[in-house]
Amino acid sequence: GRVRHYKFDVEYMIRKPDCLEHVVMGINGKFPGPTIRAQVGDTLDIALTNKLSTEGTVIHWHGIRQVGTPWADGTAAISQCAINPGETFHYRFKVDKAGTYFYHGHYGMQRAAGLYGSLIVDLPKGQKEPFHYDGQFNLLLSDLWHTSSHEQEVGLSSIPFRWIGEPQSLLINGRGQFNCSIAAKFINTSLPQCQLKGGEECAPQILHVEPKKTYRIRISSTTSLASLNLAISNHKLRVVEADGNYVEPFSVDDIDIYSGESYSVLLTADQDPTKNYWLSVGVRARKPAIPGQVLTALTLLNYQTISASVFPVSPPPVTPRWDDFDRSKAFTKKIIANIRTPQPPPPPYSHRRIVLLNTQNRVEGFTKWAINNVSLTLPATPYLGSFEFKLNNTFDRKPPPENFPSEYDIFNPPVNANATTGNGVYVFQLNEVVDVILQNANQLTGKGSEIHPWHLHGHDFWVLGYGEGKFKAGEDEKKFNLTHAPLRNTAVIFPYGWTALRFKADNPGVWAFHCHIEPHLHMGMGVIFAEAVHKVKNIPSQALACGLTANNGRHN
Ligand SMILES: O=C1O[C@H]([C@@H](O)CO)C(O)=C1O
């Protein structure tokens, strides 16, 4: 593979992503950041310069496993020190698997501020995908608030707690139209942002297709909060890839996509070529801020035989009901490993099981999320450096609980909502096979249970199964899918349900495992896995230039 060099300057910029002016984070003057395109086996060398004037930054390469380079994972306080204003940090790592990925900020709530972009890894020349296509598109989906990420962050860590609410706009490749994305308004309105000519910075990017040809549409979601559904009028979508892994192809009218996930779907332009069609992205899984009004982003599928300005005759696809979770589960359960490409099945057994109860809690009056009653707070010294230099006082060396009390009632608000904060880590031996059972529960007050997409750094995991209610040890594992379990890096837990994952601790490093909803992570919804860290070699000193590791761990 070759080495690809990039220079990334991270800065705040004034832009109009949804046709209204906002401050967003950008890279090299671009929002979203530039798309990185590489081939399997390449080494990416990204010199990231922090051009922010008052805060640190890091970038996480979402879905890249960072085999042998855990210090390049881009997680502040975990794999490295946040990069200070004016400083340049070199991320150097190998991309070893073809697929649709993305990158994003992983410090504070910088992803919510717009620090993200696409990362696409192609097969080496001469190698073929297990499916055919004539062209491709890339859609990076995100959500946007009209309050700044700083304002959101302060609200979340205030008493009384101030929730961020639902987004104001959805963006496709950083473009949306505030308040006119609801189909009826899009068609019949006088709002200027709904009357686009096409050259505006917020104008949707149109997908131009030739009749009869097949296109690969890469779709990834870096939303802060929203669970999304994507559909194109009259056209079937054939799902072929999920999180950089080939899946057994299946055709659907629409796909669900949770924050942290990526898919490739094939679309064949086999419909009436004298018409154009809507591509619609709508919010699911959370109650709309305005009852009955589904927040939507739209663009067009244009048959190049006609002008892109020809208005579609049929209305945009209707996003499935937000709380039709049976439908969501039916889609998610269709995703299984591709049978024709060699993908390792999960090891038939695990050495260890960790059950993680997800609850909304209170810590000293603050509203938090906790895992087995511990809400994650990150230490000042990055974990990787603490292990490297055997520092014992930088974080709590007592590992967090591996289960929760059996009498815990997941169907009701917690009897005692008080949790604690913590920064302990789950420690794994090299090649230990670990099962994680993610257990959902009722929210803090009232009746309800939310969706959480969990993302693992440093690995893909096998999704062994999804179930309803409380996981029943000794019984539910009999239903695990050990033959066609899909490999993924993000998996959702459904309301009041559990999700079972298996992974092999074969990548020495310190890895975050967390809810990919940005405010939830900020509120403590994550855990830290440390794997055979003594095997990690050659950590650049630049990664550890802060806290008690600032002087190569020699401090007095
Ligand atoms: O963490 C959250 O807080 C709010 C709500 O539960 C309290 O305002 C919400 O919808 C979340 O997902």
Automatic annotation (TrEMBL):
Top EC class for this record: oxidoreductase
Domain of life: Eukaryota
Keyword Nucleotide-binding: no
Cofactor section: Cu cation
EC number(s) recorded for this UniProt protein: 1.10.3.3
Record localization: Secreted
Keyword RNA-binding: no
Main location: secreted
Catalysis: reaction(s): 4 L-ascorbate + O2 = 4 monodehydro-L-ascorbate radical + 2 H2O
Domain Plastocyanin-like: 10-123, 138-303, 416-532
Record key words, sorted: Copper, Disulfide bond, Glycoprotein, Metal-binding, Oxidoreductase, Repeat, Secreted, Signal
Subunit-structure text: Dimer.
Family according to the record: Belongs to the multicopper oxidase family.
UniProt protein name: L-ascorbate oxidase
Species annotation: Stylosanthes scabra
